[in-house]
Structure formats: structure tokens, C-alpha cells
């Protein structure tokens, strides 16, 4: 039996899955859930362009320009379309529920507590949800304390684990 070659869209998603988040290299942009859609479209000049929709985690995300550049460069190297367009979109907002199970494990393995899944746990009217207790990504303890709701970026908070005595960051639920 001969293996079927991947479609162009599958090839694009494979490349996107290899691009690391600039702030946390252990997680890919796909596993972080910031890639909305990919689409091949005919250009007015008869060529074809590839559009990739990028869903920023929040409006002021400092990594957006780097993500946009990485996606554009890697897909141009693939030479799969005449033009690559990376569009920012807020029409479908990114939420922390978009992080894949593999992405949540990659975060945990890098010392970050993944966000709770809002849709599965509770409804929130807040933009970013900060919990008083988080599960420690190092030892799994819930004997933790919120040290500072303002982490190094808007989407993270800083906690301390009383059991293993490690500080850690948790992604806020959006």
C-alpha cells in the first residue's frame, strides 16, 4: 500500500505546528491555539495566495509581530503559494480553551501551570481570570498561593508552591 501524500493544507498545518511560540518555545503556535484558519485563494492577477489567520492572545501581545514574521517566513520557504498573507483577526477571539491537550502538557513540562478550561469549569464575565489557587506544574500540589496577579505578560500570574517551594506562572483563563 502506498502512503498518500499530504494535501497542501496538511503541509501548511504541519509547518505551522513546528513554529514555536516566541515567549515559550516549548509550545507551538498551533498547540497554543493562535492559528485560526488557513486558506488558499486565487489572486486577482491569476496567482494564488495563502492566507493564515492569526488570533492574538490579547490586543497588546508583544509577540504578535514575531509570530507573524515566523509564520510568513516559514511558509514562504515551503513555496506552496505565490504569496503568503498573515492576517490578524479578532473576529473570533482567542481563548485559553483553544490550547490543545499537547499544548497544556508542553506548558506544564516547561514549568507553567496551564489555564483552567473556562467552558468546562465555569462561566466568567472577566477578561482574564486569576484563580486564588493553581496546581503546581512541578509537584502537582494545590497548596499554592497567588503571589502577584501581574506576571511578566498580561496573560500570566505568579504563584508560589508551599510544598516544593517553587515559584511558577499560570496562564490566566480567557
Q: What's the short version?
A:
With 174 residues, the chain is of the alpha/beta class.
Summarize the structure in words.
With 174 residues, this protein is of the alpha/beta class. 24% of the residues lie in helices and 22% in strands. It has helices at 8-16, 29-32, 64-78, 101-109, 118-121, and strands at residues 35-42, 48-54, 83-88, 112-113, 144-148, 156-161, 167-171. The strands form two sheets. Strands 4-7-6-5 form a four-stranded mixed β-sheet. The protein has a three-stranded mixed β-sheet with strand order 1-2-3. 26% of the residues are buried. Residues 120-127 have low confidence and may be disordered.
Short descriptors:
174 residues, alpha/beta, 4-stranded mixed sheet, 3-stranded mixed sheet, 5 helices
Assign a percent range to the helix content.
10-25%
Q: In total, how many beta strands? A: 7
Distance between the termini: 46 Å
Strand content: 15-25%
Query: Order of strands in the sheet with the most strands?
Result: 4-7-6-5
Low-confidence stretches: 120-127
Q: What is the H-and-E element order?
A: HHEEHEHEHEEE
Which secondary-structure class do the elements indicate?
A: alpha/beta
The outline comes out as elongated
List the total number of helices.
5
Q: In terms of quaternary structure, what is this?
A: single chain
Rg: 18 Å
The main pleated sheet reads as: 4 strands, mixed
* Average pLDDT taken over every residue: 88
Amino acid at each position: 500500500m502506498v502512503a498518500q501524500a499530504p494535501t497542501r493544507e496538511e503541509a501548511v498545518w504541519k509547518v505551522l505546528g513546528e513554529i514555536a511560540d516566541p515567549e515559550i518555545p516549548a509550545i507551538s503556535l498551533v498547540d497554543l491555539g493562535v492559528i485560526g484558519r488557513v486558506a488558499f485563494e486565487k489572486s486577482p492577477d491569476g496567482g494564488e495566495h495563502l492566507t493564515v489567520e492569526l488570533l492574538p492572545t490579547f490586543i497588546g501581545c508583544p509577540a504578535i509581530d514575531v509570530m507573524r514574521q515566523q509564520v510568513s517566513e516559514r511558509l514562504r520557504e515551503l513555496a506552496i503559494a505565490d504569496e503568503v498573507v498573515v492576517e490578524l483577526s479578532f473576529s473570533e477571539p482567542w481563548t485559553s480553551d483553544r490550547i490543545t491537550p499537547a499544548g497544556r502538557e508542553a506548558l506544564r513540562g516547561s514549568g507553567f501551570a496551564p489555564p483552567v478550561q473556562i467552558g468546562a469549569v465555569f462561566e466568567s464575565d472577566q477578561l482574564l481570570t486569576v484563580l486564588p489557587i493553581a496546581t503546581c506544574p512541578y509537584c502537582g500540589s494545590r497548596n499554592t498561593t497567588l503571589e502577584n496577579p501581574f506576571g511578566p505578560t498580561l496573560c500570566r500570574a505568579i504563584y508560589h508552591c508551599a510544598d516544593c517551594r517553587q515559584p511558577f506562572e499560570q496562564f490566566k483563563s480567557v
